[in-house]
Amino acid sequence: MHQIEFWFDFGSPYAYFGALQIEEIAERYGRTVSWRPFMLGAAFPVTGMRLLTETPLRGDYARHDWQRLARKFCAPFSLPAGFPTGSAKPGRAYYWLRDHQPAVAIPFAKAVFHNYFGEGIDGFSREGVLRTAAECGADVASLGSALDSDDLKQQFRAVTDEALGRGVFGSPFFFIDSEPFWGADRLALVDEWLSRGGW
Amino acid sequence: MHQIEFWFDFGSPYAYFGALQIEEIAERYGRTVSWRPFMLGAAFPVTGMRLLTETPLRGDYARHDWQRLARKFCAPFSLPAGFPTGSAKPGRAYYWLRDHQPAVAIPFAKAVFHNYFGEGIDGFSREGVLRTAAECGADVASLGSALDSDDLKQQFRAVTDEALGRGVFGSPFFFIDSEPFWGADRLALVDEWLSRGGW
After folding, report:
1. Distance from CA of B49 to the nearest CA of A (A)
2. A10 near A112, Cβ under 8 Å?
């Protein structure tokens, strides 16, 4: 079965809104979703773009837009006090779970998004990541040993390099087969692409 | 009757796709469209953003995306050899027409988009602007006298300042009453906003 690739940074509000929708879209077309967190910040030196919240005018618009999207989707939305926070730890934890407890990986990713953006809990710290992983039934002792290891850091850097190599410059970013779609606001187009088999 | 404000730079491909759709959406809700060209380049020093075509990764994506949107809308699309070209002259001409031959202004704006992006004719030069204006029945002798005048330049700069003051940082950019929407890919959301009267 062809997968939909869902590339995202855990710290991206638009990725949160994408995560709320992509599984249902994929299911409707008999596809599964490959969740691929990466470090969006690595793309900024390449594109010259910046964090939305550090971009004048656009940052203000985005803050307004997130609230509007939250109301539209009846989704809980509450930015943590420290937002934006570096998201390397939940990203690394996701790949460790994918490789060692695959059944837990996507539930963990959804819980990370929900805790951070839905509940406004700053869960990107080591403690926050392990707490969320525990809620999802992860083997927290093993995950805790691996979380800050050089091997896992290197694996996550390689994933981020793969993203940039594929032309991923924003979050969320989707591939249907090889067709790229940037942005949660492109999910209607993604849906139409799947429905028509492209055009 | 409440208007929909449609802010755009004539040199923006996404504005071209927005221009193809916005009048029909507005009509469906008994609204008219206020066409407001401005100089997007003036926002770049404020936001730190750049021309799409000069943005690595994102520029390649955009070129692919424009062709995909053109196929989706069955819209003619052909980038002029000199793209991107400064769009001050068609912008100034639009406001002169709006003030002196209002019936011609929006047909002129549509013709500018069609010639530039639909036919790939580099119509942003003085000669190109006057040729397009003539096709639309403009008083080309008067327009030609005004086109490069300090007064009209100043008027267009003031419009661009107004755009930035309103938080407009991209093209196209829409306001429904005071609600801002950035991007041609937000027109489905614009439609839903009009349908529901906001949320």
Report:
1. 7
2. yes
CB contact under 8 Å between B199 and A71, yes or no, is yes
Residue A43 and residue B49: Cβ atoms within 8 Å?
A: no
Residues B51-85 pLDDT 10s: 888 899 999 999 999 999 999 999 999 999 889 99
Which residues have CB under 8 Å from A138's CB, separation 6+? A97, A101, A104, A108
Task: Name chain A contacts of B183, Cβ cutoff 8 Å.
Answer: 185
pLDDT at B144: 98
Rounded to the nearest angstrom, the minimum Cα separation between A110 and chain B is 25
Task: Choose among A47, A58, A183: nearest Cβ to B56.
Answer: A47
Could you tell me which residues are beta bridge partners of residue B175? B5, B180
Answer with the residue of higher pLDDT: B100 or B81.
Answer: B100
Prediction ipTM score? 0.93
Q: How many CA atoms lie within 13 A of B15 on its CB side?
A: 27
Q: Nearest residue on chain B to A165, judged by CA atoms? A: B57
DSSP B135-181: HTT--HHHHHHHHT-HHHHHHHHHHHHHHHHTT--SSSEEEETTEEE
Give all domains of chain B, ordered by start, each with its CATH number.
3-196 (3.40.30.10)
At residue B1, the pLDDT reads 64
Is A61's pLDDT higher than 70?
yes
Quick one: which of A156, A161, A193 has its CA closest to A178?
A193
φ, ψ (nearest 5 deg) of residue B149? -75, 155
CB distance A181 to A173 below 8 Å:
yes
Q: Which of A91-105, A131-145, B51-65 has the lowest mean pLDDT?
A: B51-65
Query: Confidence band (pLDDT; 50, 70, 90) for A1?
Result: low
Taking the CA atoms of chain A, what radius of gyration do you get in angstroms?
16
Contacting residues of A for B180, CB less than 8 Å apart = 61, 64
